[in-house]
Design goal:
This protein has 168 residues and is α+β, with helices and mostly antiparallel strands. It has three helices and nine strands. The strands form two sheets. Strands 1, 2, 3, 4, 5, 6 and 9 form a seven-stranded mixed sheet that branches. A two-stranded antiparallel sheet has the order 7-8. Strand 1 and strand 2 form a beta hairpin. The chain is globular and about 60 Å long. The termini are far apart.
Length: 168
């Protein structure tokens, strides 16, 4: 059994110099653009500096979320802690009930808080060109599609992303 080779000096990743809090905030706000199904906005309550959430309430995105049959809505609340150069993140998830083509967020026993990971997928079973059964994925909806770009923006600024379980 061979041992892993040691890294040479030029292969060791260099630490990223930490950017100022204002640049971290700007990088996080830039993550949510018009072409992604989530928005990053200022957080005005609950100790959050910024909040990222699915655009499930925006009429322009109802069709997207309805086609994906999304049954949960995710909100990631973030607080910047400049003295520690970290962003604390707390997820909240709600059950979504669809009435026609409009969503309604329902606070219920299905409410979750802490670090949330949820994946929804749908497949159609059909026959391929050779007559064999095959699965075709209709949609995939994964909370990491929102959380990963947020975390990468923080880490790319030389800060730490710290998931919180109970409070920011």
């Amino acid at each position: 059994m061979s041992r892993p080779r040691p890294l040479h000096r030029h292969q060791i990743p260099r630490p990223i110099p930490p950017r100022p809090a204002s640049e971290v905030r700007a990088a996080l706000l830039a993550v949510g653009g018009p072409d992604v199904p989530y928005v990053v906005r200022e957080g005005h309550t609950g100790g959050a500096d910024l909040v990222a959430e699915w655009r499930i309430r925006e009429p322009a995105w109802h069709g997207f979320f309805a086609r994906a049959k999304v049954s949960r809505s995710l909100e990631t609340r973030m607080r910047l802690v400049p003295e520690k150069r970290e962003v604390r993140a707390l997820d909240r998830e709600w059950e979504v009930t669809w009435v026609g083509d409009r969503p309604s967020l329902v606070l219920s026993a299905e409410y979750s808080r802490g670090q949330v990971r949820s994946v929804s997928r749908s497949w159609t079973v059909g026959r391929g060109p050779e007559g064999k059964l095959r699965l075709t994925e209709d949609y995939r909806f994964d909370t990491t599609e929102m959380k990963t770009p947020l975390r990468e923006a923080v880490l790319g600024a030389g800060w730490t992303w710290r998931g919180a379980l109970f409070r920011l």
